[in-house]
Design brief:
The complex is a heterotrimer of chains A (about 240), B (about 325) and C (about 280).
Chain A (H helix, E strand, L loop, with lengths): L3 E6 L5 H7 L2 H10 L1 E5 L12 E5 L5 H13 L2 E5 H6 L11 H9 L22 E3 L6 H13 L10 H7 L24 H4 L16 H10 L4 H18 L1
Parallel strand pairs in A: 1-2, 1-3, 3-4, 4-5
Chain B lengths: L1 H9 L5 E8 L2 E6 L25 E8 L5 E4 L6 E6 L1 H15 L5 H8 L1 E6 L10 H4 L10 E5 L4 E5 L2 H10 L7 H15 L13 H6 L6 H6 L7 H4 L7 E7 L5 E8 L20 H20 L9 H5 L7 H10 L1
Parallel strand pairs in B: 1-5, 5-6, 6-7
Antiparallel strand pairs in B: 1-2, 3-4, 3-10, 7-8, 9-10
Chain C lengths: L14 E10 L4 E8 L12 E6 L3 E6 L10 E6 L3 H7 L6 E8 L5 H4 L3 E7 L3 H13 L7 E7 L8 H9 L3 E7 L9 E2 L16 E6 L2 H14 L6 E4 L15 E2 L2 E2 L6 E3 H6 L5
Parallel strand pairs in C: 7-8, 7-11, 8-9, 9-10, 11-12
Antiparallel strand pairs in C: 1-2, 1-6, 2-5, 3-4, 3-6, 12-15, 13-14
Classes of the chains: A alpha/beta (about 240), B alpha/beta (about 325), C alpha/beta (about 280).
């Protein structure tokens, strides 16, 4: 019996599902190992007897809450993929406004027909077995996690900062180029892809388990950022943590 | 020199001709396409040449799964000529050799190491965090096949091994150095010694003894407070040799490989066991462990100090706490 | 320069072994009997460990539970805690695993000869100590008195129950056990393992105490041994670390300047006192 897996999307850009689908050759291998029974982005048939559920998108309406609870009840293993489902992600930027204000900004005079709640990661609503944050999800990591689950092994998700992978890639440190970076507190697993491509780390994989954020803030300050700038930097993906505190 | 290096590349003197190249505003060891890429007057490379003997990630063996699993050892190496290795990195390679080739010789390391030729070059413009002059690692008399010193209009070449001698004879035009050229080399080396901005307030022989009495020092807590546990210091270190071992399988789930990859004692989970206990669970302990490894433990085990003073850790550390020289000096002062 | 030593290809390469018997011990513990496929003996000493590979899952250090006097196969008793051990628990007889080792120093048997041995096993600590206990029992004339203290959390967590009974009934072994918390069926001692020290009478200068258990147990057991007057270099402990390579390279098991996989996992208390991060 092949394990049945399902994909569900919540509030987000759906980039994560596309990212998984883009991985064509591996997706074919994947199809030999599992039955995909639910994948809105890729197929019309649906079954609700899945064992592994992959969730992308944040929870941001009351109906999202009910829906994720039902998925959790069915799934043996629930994996949050991408920054929105794992961390709350950019959706949580709205949490810094009142919900009424948010509705007005988005829907204008039709605001009264919609409801919204502060955006949150899946783990704030139901227990999540594994989270693989990244914006969009890292398809190599998605494959790695899926393989681990098929082998009955706990997926290894790094608990060290991006700096490790950045050093292994032999990049020049972003700070040495006169810019700033969230790599020193952000969970690795991306292979320091943004820095390797000439940018800096935005923190889309969330913080490591024991981040020294005080030290990181000091370093950012020394490199010319104001407290306001620093908060903004952290808020892009980690706004949920700030509000939750 | 250009001719020599171009000849090495053209005549394929080895499967890989590797040298120091510019990368963004820094330097790296990388495969040379032509001699023009080679930068011999550099301060330090981002990663040490250790990566050619202990790669960041390396397959140890491959396996087939199923009812009858089978294994296939993997130890691959290409003959490699490394050009432009600084003396401190040569000293570091000598330490790695001690770790990987003396007790329980490591086949993967040994194969790569045996197929390497090391052409060193004296470091004439040290980086601002280096302190090789204090550790006797600014120059070296051993560990190279050839050693080059830039004396302005030409290079003085010292021959370290028969292998180096053969290479030189086959691919370069050389002549016996004159007394004044040799004096020029000594002058260059002496001048370079004066360029170091960081120094130790003690002889290298004193370090293990200093650490012996410093275990409870408040210096470790104070210094480690801003530590990000980001591992940058250990990832760039030429004498850090710790690794992690993991399995990876193909998506067909019928085959895979075991690989090892660089790991480091400054990372939070390094000393964690399966039952959840972490034997170095805070940054002070990890910071201290690293300092002791550099200044005492490796010395006791292999007779060589675990730090060569290259300054890479201090250059990479955003919290500016990684330099062993700084900590050793603080301990000495307190 | 590079020393001309011939590296063993087997340094990182496991030997294949077949599971010839799998037996449940307690809720999360099983014992696995293995036979090397090359037909050789493992050739271990009590207190040593092997690295067990489940290809695709990984490798984990496991202490050897059987005595070297048992020929033809060896036993590993394992609690399912991590990736490798959980996967092992799903395997049946006939499955193939990888084995590297034996590694580590093992218990100092030569020093034990002619002396009394006090074995102190806390919970899973019984696994490596069972190798020692059975070794001594199989070479009974070489050793003095054998006293075994065993403590675990609850009656349901007792391990190798058949053998515990055997040791209890045997005249040449003094066996005492306790559980932290009893239940309706339990008629034996209740209390932590150190309470058993009140019930034994030993000749300290002629006794080697060998303790294996959770890290928390060591501090208390060491104190009891010292109180009994056992010299510090005759108090023997085995340490748990994350031995990844088993051959003194990867750095994971390092305590100060010691590699637990090389100089350990067995240390005297006198040695451990010099190691600041050990217990």
């Amino acid at each position: 019996m092949k394990p049945k897996i399902a994909f569900f999307d919540f509030t987000g850009c759906e980039g994560c599902q596309l990212e998984v689908l883009n991985f064509e050759t591996e997706i074919l291998d994947l199809l030999n190992q599992v039955d995909i029974v639910n994948f809105r982005e890729a197929m019309t048939e649906r079954e609700d007897n899945y064992e592994i559920a992959f969730i992308d998108g944040a929870i941001s309406t009351e109906s999202d809450v009910a829906r994720i609870k039902a998925i959790r009840d069915q799934a043996k293993v629930l994996v949050a993929i991408g920054s929105c489902s794992s961390l709350g992600g950019v959706n949580c930027l709205k949490n810094f406004y009142s919900m009424d204000e948010v509705l007005k900004i988005v829907y204008g005079k039709d605001a009264e027909y919609y409801n919204t709640i502060p955006a949150r990661p899946v783990s704030a609503v139901v227990p999540v077995d594994y989270s693989i944050a990244q914006c969009p999800v890292n398809r190599y990591e998605f494959i790695k996690v899926t393989k681990a689950l098929l082998l009955g092994k706990k997926p290894e998700i790094p608990n060290y900062p991006v700096c490790v992978e950045c050093k292994l890639a032999e990049n020049v440190c972003v700070f040495d180029k006169g810019q700033t970076c969230l790599g020193p507190v952000t969970r690795a697993g991306c292979g320091a892809i943004c820095i390797t491509q000439g940018r800096h780390c935005w923190g889309c994989r969330g913080l490591v388990d024991e981040p020294n954020t005080d030290s990181e803030k000091e370093i950012l300050k020394e490199h010319g950022l104001t407290v306001e700038d620093i908060l903004k930097k952290f808020r892009i993906y980690d706004g949920w943590l700030e509000v939750a505190k | 020199m250009i001719n020599f290096v171009d000849t090495l590349i053209e005549k394929k003197a080895a499967e890989e001709i590797v040298g120091v190249k510019a990368s963004d505003s820094k330097y790296i060891f990388g495969k040379l396409a032509n001699a023009g890429e080679l930068c011999l007057n550099y301060d330090v490379t981002l990663l040490p040449p250790k990566k050619y003997f202990l790669p960041q990630r390396e397959t140890v063996f491959k396996f087939k799964l199923g009812d009858k699993p089978s294994l296939e050892p993997v130890a691959e190496a290409k003959s490699t000529i490394l050009i432009g290795v600084h003396p401190y990195d040569i000293k570091a390679i000598e330490l790695c050799d001690a770790v990987f080739t003396t007790i329980n010789p490591d086949p993967n390391y040994l194969l790569k190491r045996d197929k390497a030729t090391i052409i060193g070059t004296d470091c004439l413009s040290p980086n601002p965090k280096a302190f090789c002059a204090s550790l006797d690692t600014a120059t070296t008399e051993s560990g190279f096949d050839l050693m080059l010193t830039d004396i302005g209009d030409s290079y003085v070449v010292a021959i370290g091994t028969a292998k180096g001698d053969k290479l030189l004879k086959k691919y370069a035009k050389t002549r016996e150095a004159t007394q004044s050229e040799l004096a020029g080399r000594d002058g260059q080396r002496k001048k370079a010694l004066g360029e170091y901005k960081v120094s130790l307030n003690m002889s290298p022989e004193e370090i293990p003894g200093l650490l012996e009495v410093s275990w409870g020092s408040p210096v470790f807590k104070e210094k480690s407070e801003p530590c990000l546990s980001c591992g940058s210091c250990v990832m760039v270190c030429p004498t850090c040799v710790c690794f992690d071992v993991q399995d990876d399988v193909a998506f067909t789930l019928d085959k895979g490989e075991r690989y090892r990859q660089w790991d480091g004692c400054m990372l939070v989970d390094f000393a964690k066991v399966a039952t959840g206990e972490n034997f170095r669970d805070d940054k002070e302990k990890r910071f201290r462990h690293r300092m002791y490894r550099k200044g005492k433990y490796l010395q006791e085990r292999y007779g060589k100090l675990g730090c060569v003073g290259c300054g890479r850790c201090a250059l990479a550390c955003l919290a500016q706490i990684a330099s062993p020289a700084e900590t050793f000096n603080l301990l000495k002062a307190s | 320069m590079v020393m001309q030593l011939t590296p063993k290809a087997s340094l990182h390469l496991p030997r294949l072994a077949e599971l010839v018997r799998v037996e449940s011990l307690a809720q999360r513990e099983k014992v696995f009997e293995l036979k090397l496929k090359d037909g050789e003996e493992l050739g271990h000493k009590p207190g040593q460990f092997v690295e067990v590979s489940l290809f695709g899952i990984g490798e984990a250090p496991i202490s050897i539970s059987s005595s070297p006097t048992k020929k033809g196969s060896f036993e590993l008793a394992i609690r399912a805690t991590g990736n490798v051990t959980n996967a092992l628990h799903r395997l049946d007889k006939g499955a193939t695993v990888g084995i590297r080792g034996p590694f580590g120093n093992g218990f100092p048997l030569d020093e034990f000869r002619g002396k009394d041995v006090l074995v102190v096993a806390g919970g899973l600590g019984l696994f490596p100590l069972r190798s020692l206990i059975n070794y001594i029992r199989d070479n009974r004339a070489d050793f003095g008195r054998l006293t075994v203290l065993f403590g675990c959390r609850a009656p349901a967590e007792r391990l190798f129950c058949d053998e515990l009974c055997k040791w209890q009934d045997c005249k040449d072994t003094e066996f005492l056990e306790t559980v932290d918390v009893g239940d309706d069926s339990w008629t034996g001692s209740v209390g932590v393992i150190t309470t058993l020290f009140l019930k034994i009478d030993i000749e300290p200068s002629n006794t080697y105490a060998v303790a294996v258990g959770p890290p928390i147990m060591y501090r208390f057991v060491i104190a009891e041994c010292v109180k009994k007057g056992i010299p510090e270099d005759q108090i023997i402990l085995s340490l748990e670390r994350r031995m990844k390579c088993g051959v003194g390279k990867c750095g994971h098991c390092q305590i100060n300047n010691v590699y637990v996989c090389q100089e350990g996992p067995v240390f005297t208390y006198a040695e451990l006192k010099q190691l600041k991060e050990a217990v």
